[in-house]
């Protein structure tokens, strides 16, 4: 249903914001569709290490939130980074945030039209799909 809504918004030329894990090829197609339709696309990528993603879901469950099986978290984590790297060139800007500390998110990289700009501060745990595509 959400995918149909996003497609309808693009086809109508309406602005919108979408939040996603970005672990499925359909999200890349969404970005490509929006680009062809003339949208300005800002991609904000909030990064955490894989084990921390598992831990945060477990914490959410203990607080009464919904569960996601660990194997599914790890499968999604493994898929999403290559898709993000492929999507960034279709975006006007892509900003990467390290959200692995209690201090909160900090910008670690910025990509404009697929090209890294400024100093890259990738955390040591950054997935290779990103560091191989954009290195310091």
TrEMBL record:
Catalytic activity, reaction form: UDP-N-acetyl-alpha-D-glucosamine + ATP = UDP-N-acetyl-alpha-D-glucosamine 3'-phosphate + ADP + H(+)
UniProt keyword terms in alphabetical order: ATP-binding, Nucleotide-binding
Domain Zeta toxin stretches: 2-82
Molecular-function GO terms, alphabetical: ATP binding; kinase activity
Top EC class for this record: transferase
EC number of the protein: 2.7.1.176
Pfam families per the UniProt record, alphabetical: Zeta_toxin (PF06414)
Annotated family: Belongs to the zeta toxin family.
Protein name per the record: UDP-N-acetylglucosamine kinase
Species in which this protein is naturally found: Rhodococcoides trifolii
Lineage: Bacteria, Bacillati, Actinomycetota, Actinomycetes, Mycobacteriales
């Amino acid at each position: 249903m959400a995918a149909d809504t996003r497609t309808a918004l693009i086809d109508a030329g309406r602005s919108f914001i979408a939040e996603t894990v970005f672990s499925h090829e359909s999200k890349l197609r969404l970005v490509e569709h929006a680009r062809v339709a003339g949208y300005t696309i800002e991609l904000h990528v909030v990064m955490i290490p894989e084990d921390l993603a598992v831990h945060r879901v477990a914490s959410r469950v203990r607080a009464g939130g919904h569960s996601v099986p660990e194997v599914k978290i790890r499968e999604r984590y493994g898929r999403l980074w290559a898709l993000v790297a492929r999507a960034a060139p279709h975006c006007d800007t892509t900003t990467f945030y390290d959200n692995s500390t209690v201090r909160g998110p900090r910008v670690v990289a910025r990509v404009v039209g697929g090209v890294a700009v400024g100093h890259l501060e990738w955390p040591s745990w950054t997935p290779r799909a990103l560091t191989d595509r954009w290195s310091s």
